[in-house]
């Protein structure tokens, strides 16, 4: 019997992360980092409506991460998404509940109903005239609907009407960031921070953009003072943790678009310093803990020794084959030494010492850490 429950998925997690359905695990991980950086800073806003909207988005991002990084859950979710699609959005609520369209628009934004929020905000604009607050709410609604060109125009109207409102400058920066206008976004965040230097959100936003631009060391200079002022704040822990992970992962010189390998002791040591610092964060969220744990495990593997024969076709063999080859070479040298020593002459004993010495040299040549193996393979 067919269930009366709707079978369509409630949220398109791929859309939440801004990726395609066939995205790889690495692409999902990177997307989670990116959209988390984009929305987490807004959870620190002093405006409760902005905070509620951001908390809803962050919850969706966390749900997407949990489902799409679990192979069984992802398989079931993908099958349901392909078969039934996504639930249709709610019908736009055009009812005037009590006459306060702005209050209604804020309510709709807090529950993620951007269509109804946009309608209520337009009604508020008509009712209140050229109001900075109504322009700001219209912009937030259109940003939620990914109508960023409309949103940035409306956000600029709000800042023009109230030039000293940091919340409006912060939102304008947020929309500019989504349009890829990073210089403008940083300027707006700086203006907001100048108006209200006590609000950590604005500095966190600057650090977030620097991370997106691949400048984690510059981001550290912005984020470390924020963390130092409030080490227990999870959002500050999130951005600083991400910056430390990004700093570590920028160090290896051998890399392609999606991955890297450590191939030097100096690289391993420098990455370890960032990882160790990230492990001291006081209140990191789960995604930072996961990222630091994965980095720590990778660095441990790179420092672990194994056999690797560095010459001929043997250099491309796996750990087991390399161990067998190295042990065979040392065993042959040992036998040759025994045969030489069995002659009972001084020359035979010297030959034994030479064979043992070469065997010891073979051991140290082939028993090496994984980063050394990488260096040999990619040399």
TrEMBL record:
PROSITE patterns in UniProt: DNAJ_2, TPR
Record has Repeat as a keyword: yes
Key words of the record: Membrane, Repeat, TPR repeat, Transmembrane, Transmembrane helix
TPR repeat locations: 166-199
A UniProt-annotated Pfam family: DnaJ
Organism superkingdom: Bacteria
Segments crossing the lipid bilayer: 320-342, 348-368
J domain segment(s): 12-81
Record flagged with keyword Transmembrane: yes
SMART domains per UniProt: DnaJ (SM00271), TPR (SM00028)
InterPro entries per UniProt: DnaJ_domain (IPR001623), J_dom_sf (IPR036869), TPR-like_helical_dom_sf (IPR011990), TPR_rpt (IPR019734)
UniProt-listed PANTHER family: DNAJ HOMOLOG SUBFAMILY C MEMBER 7 (PTHR45188:SF2), DNAJ PROTEIN P58IPK HOMOLOG (PTHR45188)
Protein name per Swiss-Prot or TrEMBL: Molecular chaperone DnaJ
């Amino acid at each position: 019997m067919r269930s009366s429950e709707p079978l369509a998925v409630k949220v398109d997690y791929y859309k939440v992360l801004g990726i395609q359905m066939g995205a790889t695990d690495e692409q999902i991980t990177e997307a989670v980092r990116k959209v988390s950086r984009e929305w987490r800073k807004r959870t620190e806003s002093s405006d409760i409506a902005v905070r509620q909207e951001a908390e809803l988005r962050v919850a969706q991002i966390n749900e997407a991460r949990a489902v799409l990084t679990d192979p069984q859950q992802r398989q079931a979710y993908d099958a349901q998404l392909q078969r039934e699609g996504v639930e249709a959005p709610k019908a736009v609520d055009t009812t005037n509940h009590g006459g306060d369209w702005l209050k209604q628009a804020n309510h709709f934004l807090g529950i993620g109903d951007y269509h109804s929020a946009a309608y209520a905000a337009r009604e508020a604009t008509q009712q209140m005239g050229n109001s900075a607050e109504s322009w700001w709410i219209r912009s937030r609604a259109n940003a939620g609907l990914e109508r960023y060109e409309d949103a940035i125009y409306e956000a600029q109207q709000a800042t023009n009407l109230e030039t000293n409102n940091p919340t409006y400058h912060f939102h304008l920066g947020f929309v500019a960031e989504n349009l890829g206008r990073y210089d403008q976004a940083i300027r707006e965040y700086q203006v907001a921070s100048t108006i209200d230097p006590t609000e950590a959100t604005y500095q966190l936003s600057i650090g977030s953009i620097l991370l997106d631009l691949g400048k984690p060391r510059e981001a550290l200079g912005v984020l470390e003072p924020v963390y130092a002022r409030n080490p227990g704040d999870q959002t500050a822990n999130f951005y600083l943790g991400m910056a430390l992970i990004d700093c570590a992962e920028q160090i290896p010189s051998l890399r392609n678009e999606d991955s890297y390998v450590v191939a030097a002791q100096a690289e391993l040591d420098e990455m370890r310093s960032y990882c160790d610092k990230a492990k001291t964060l006081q209140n990191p969220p789960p995604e930072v803990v996961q990222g630091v744990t994965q980095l720590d495990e990778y660095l441990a593997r790179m420092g672990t020794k194994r056999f690797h024969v560095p010459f001929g076709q043997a250099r491309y063999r796996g750990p087991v084959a390399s161990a067998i080859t190295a042990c065979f070479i040392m065993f042959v040298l040992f036998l040759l030494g025994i045969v030489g020593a069995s002659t009972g002459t001084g020359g035979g004993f010297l030959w034994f010492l030479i064979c043992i010495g070469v065997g010891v040299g073979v051991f140290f040549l082939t028993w090496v850490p994984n980063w050394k193996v990488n260096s040999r393979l990619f040399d």
